[in-house]
Amino acid sequence: xxxxxxxxxxxxxxxxxxxxxxxxxxxxxxxxxxxxxxxxxxxxxxxxxxxxxxxxxxxxxxxxxxxxxxxxxxxxxxxxxxxxxxxxxxxx
Length: 92
Known about the structure:
It comes from Limimonas halophila. This is Regulatory protein, luxR family. The chain has 5 helices and no strands. By secondary structure, the chain is an all-alpha fold.
């Protein structure tokens, strides 16, 4: 070998599969609706609410409503707490 190590770069399919695992886990563990879990996952991955809403084809106000429900159901108060939960869920 040439002494160079190569890391696997995640593909879009890898990312989507990881996201779907997180969505399923959030729904099962916390009783989130699919839309709440999708918004929570996107925001937890670092997407701004406006972009997450656009990606899901919903109004920003609707996305904010779902995110408010996510925070309530998960009993969290800050986005960093959501990020930790999503990272943990996606790692499984």
